[in-house]
Amino acid sequence: MSNNFERNFSEQENIRRDKLKKLTENGRDPFVENQFERSHSLTELNDQFSSFSKDELTEKTNIIISAAGRIRLFREAGKKAIFANIQDQKSSIQIYVRQDELGDEEFEYFRDLDLGDIVGVEGIMMKTDHGELTIRIKKAKLLSKALKPLPDKHLGMADIEEKYRRRYVDLIINPEAKQVFIDRTKIIRTIQTILDSKGYMEVETPILQSVRGGASAKPFVTHYNALNNDFVLRIATELHLKRCIVGGFDGVYEIGRIFRNEGISTRHNPEFTSIELYVAYKNMEFLMELCEELFRECSLVVRGTTKINYGGHDLDLSKPFKRWHMVDAIKEVCGVDFWKEMTYEEACEIAKKHNVKVEKHHFSVGHIINLFFEEFVEEKIVEPTFIWGHPREISPLSKLNSKDPRFTDRFELFIINREYANAFAELNNPIDQYDRFVDQIKEAVAGNDEANEMDIDFIEALEYGMPPTGGIGIGIDRMVMLLTNSESIKDVLLFPQMKPRGN
Q: Which residues contact 470 (CB under 8 A, 6 or more apart)?
């Protein structure tokens, strides 16, 4: 009887399954192995023995090594010898098998292996006449049978979506893809090392939250059966981290998953990773300097330089980043001066003249200022630039600027017209914060489905007293894209969200 899980195999797949059946019948089932002791990784073998000459290695026949990896190349050298290449996480190496050394039965056992099979080998190190470092095999054992053939090594994965759906195959055949994720881990570790060295503590906060807050975004909603209540997957870690500052920590940070029920594009994935850091007694300028340091040091770790090329643009992350007030940027680019006091109606008229659509009922002058920035300025930014002084209306968690309370002490980092970081002097006045939440509720009623909700517990936390605090969030995925020269966010996520096949 057929069902939805019935499978049809290709000719190659059937051949491989027949080989597995034969191996099992002969007592050589590869899937019973649960361990193989390696004396060296392939990188260690290359590092330790590459400097020796062919003659020097010939004298080291008493050094028996063991290694393991996946067969990636396979060629017979006549009827009695085989050359192959195996690869592990970081490296690859050639192996050499001779019939007169393995014996007829073991040689035929090895000859019947396929590309993609994982083998464990024992042998000695040698170099070929062409000087290629090689393991001369004395013993070989199949550790896992690949029942699916790998894509052609020259053509790769023809369907671009398949490399995201089957990332494991992409990692096998594409060393550059694997390096991106090695670099991603290096970037995260570098950030942790820098922040730890400054005395800041890494913490964990809830992913399931009863109140959405800390950002303007649509949440994923789920029902918590035990509490008989709806919860949301967090859209930011901010409010819980600031509770930690109230509790007396000088600096806390979290690197973790954030969930926003929004679109998918080359820049956006509904599940992504951010770093958020909050430091007591520090201001916006301190965060700018720290942000520069993080980008500079991460670039040095993964690129070996602060000079990078991304999207055809040459950048030098060692230079101080430009600091540009949002209103000054708008005035310089399109000549509109929002420093002047004006009514909402006057701002709407200016928007109309510049073909900027003001469609939302909850909008104010501050929202229109932000529209002008997004419409005219954002796409023109190339060099790393801190855009600061965001309007009060779009910054419900930021302190007001002491010189002009229409604006806040907040900045965003833009590089080649993409946002990489968002930071501000945190609002620590509980009365003002309560009023800002009320304003957000009014916006929600007027149609803003990304407005913050009222978080009474957070208000009460502020009522116990939070010191002046600077907070910053950096998008890890976009940072990795920049420093690994990756075009799409899917290139830096091991398993990005994808539409189901056929949709």
A: 278, 279, 282, 283, 284, 286, 287, 423, 424, 425, 426
Size (the chain), residues: 503
DSSP string covering 108-167: HHHHT--TT-EEEEEEEEEE-TT--EEEEEEEEEEEE---SPPPPTTT--SSHHHHHHTH
Q: What is the pLDDT of residues 124-159, one digit of tens each?
A: 999 999 999 999 999 999 999 999 999 986 666 767
**Distance between the two ends of the chain, CA-based, in angstroms?**
27
Q: Percent of the chain scored above 90 by pLDDT?
A: 85
105 appears as a binding residue in the annotation: no
CB–CB of 336/350 below 8 Å? yes
Q: Do the annotations mark residue 419 as ligand-binding? A: yes
| Helices (H) then strands (E): counts for the chain | 16, 18
What's residue 1's pLDDT?
43
Token look-up 């700018």 returns 288
> How far does Cα 133 stand from its chain's mean position?
35
Domains of the chain: 11-150 (2.40.50.140), 172-321+383-491 (3.30.930.10)
The CA distance from 240 to 236, in Å, is 9
- Kind plus residue range of the DSSP H or E element containing 415: strand 410-415
pLDDT tens for residues 345-378?
999 999 999 999 997 777 899 999 999 999 999 9
* Four-residue CA torsion sign, 167, 168, 172, 176: positive
